[in-house]
Amino acid sequence: MACRVKFTVIARNSDPAAPSPSKGTELLAVRLQLAGSTSTTCFRRSRIKGRRQTGREDKNDRTRINDQIRVKQVRVIDEKGQQLGIISINEALRVAEDAGLDLVEVSPTAEPPVCRIMDYGKFRYERSKKQAEAKKKQTVIEVKEIKLRPKTEKHDLDFKIKNIRKFLEQKNKVKITLRFRGREIVYADSQGREVLGKIAENLEDVATILQAPKMEGRQMVMFVAPKN
Asked: Where are the domains of the chain?
């Protein structure tokens, strides 16, 4: 038997016999045509964000809102911060819907759970903004690397030491790598310690040696950090 269902939205007051929708809802008419007869069923569809759509953009957000709260009773705090006491979840959802806001579970482990009535989208935006500002204020310490050869000319060596000083002034640690090629490895220990010793001597007013010169394969490495 053929069956056709047609969905149409009835505008407010378009049907004098239809009930008037409450704040935050709209009437949805389902017209069912079956075997030549037509019937119309009206029901309310909530406009509250969380009740209409339970998915979240942030998968790490475990906060339960609106119909995701599966308990019989909750302690409710309204949008003005006033205690509404312990009421049923249906009553709490109705109060949030009448205010055009969300019911957000803020303390799920309490007995009963504590919920606040708020604009959850606005709350998430302000929270992410605060987290971004806090992240900007954090001091990120990076490890910079300066590479040189055992026979680096004095001019080039002075330039590299200048760069190391700049990194230390930016509160970064510095890895100084001395590379050896071919037969240079034969004199690596003596030559390497001499070059890195000169660098450490030039930086003693601004740097602390974190790791003394140490051979790692065909290179010698030393780590320095800014003085406190």
From this structure: 3-46, 53-136, 143-226
